[in-house]
Design a protein that fits this description.
single chain; about 375 residues; alpha/beta; FAD/NAD(P)-binding domain; D-Amino Acid Oxidase, Chain A, domain 2; 2 domains; 6-stranded mixed sheet; 10 helices; 19 strands; globular
Length: about 375
Amino acid sequence: MRNRAAVVIIGGGINGVSVAYHLAKFGAKDIVVLEKNFLAAGSTGRCGAGVREQWGTEMNCRLAQASIKKFERMNEELEYDDDIEFKQKGYLILAHTEKELTQFKKNIELQHSLGIPSKLVTPEEAKEIVPHLNTEGLLAATYCPEDGHINPFKAVDAYAKAARRLGVEILTGVEVTGIKVVGGKIAGVETNRGTIDTPIVVNTAGPYSQLVAAMAGIKLPVYSERHQILVTEPVEPLQDPMVMSFSRSFYVQQSPHGSFIMGIGDPNEPRDAYETGHSWQFLEHCAKVVTWHLPVLAKLRVVRQWSGMYNISPDRQPILGPVDEVEGYYQAIGFSGHGFMLGPMTGELLAQSILGLPLTMPIEQLHLNRFVKGELILEPSVV
């Protein structure tokens, strides 16, 4: 392992390899990515793999919209020798309360102002999109055909291969144990395999981001929380879009390979427990909620269960860019369960910020200091 680098990126999920690729694409040299396990071993490889433009804040909409455009042409841009398996069949998001419907109308107005082709649909129209949907109590839904599903392992592999071709060194099995700060500036990274001197560190450590930041003396206002997922046996195509409800806190979609992937939020999950097991209680509760809304799925057999971690910020929007306290420290964290879908644009923006290039879009609203200033804009559309 080298003992010096221009940039060290901590975390080998979608955001880490995207930042690395974009840095190299823009001409940076001597870039190292450190991952303590294998690539996509953390939140990226454990996510539900959905991508959507239907958000309630401008920044999440713009990041998602730009990322989806990148996903659409990723195989070609990265000259990938495989396929990221982008199934672009939309999201159908359900409104069962008047409060939810009011928010959805606001969301649609915002999305249309940004050129996102979402639309409000009636219960009857929603059932035309998903014929096996139970519309009892449904007031309306929103639908965007550009939303979809991607294989997260393939997306990370595509970025990693492209980054390596551009000279990036990606090391797995290397755990960061400390960050050296001298005179308020980043000086190096300590690992279980030695020290790398560097003036720039990028924290893309997902649910461990607050632990990494603390090594540099930075306190982050985020916490990590377990979210569990079920996967069924593969069956013939039954459902094109992701079906999601914010008020009832569930999502379910059919993957390109035929399996149904589903999850449901649990408000009783402890914070920062770093528990990645799974339970029969979750299995029973998730199955009950999902099969009420989509009764035909009751016939399917569950083949496996897993869990991953959301790294949650106070306003459910990511924290991007440098910090004021430590020169040379950058971060892309706090995605609140949606880091995978925002990874492509996050990588471009972080690389531009690090290299002092003009930004494709402004990210000042997502700076860490917004929490001190009280300039939060809460994202309403999360599970």
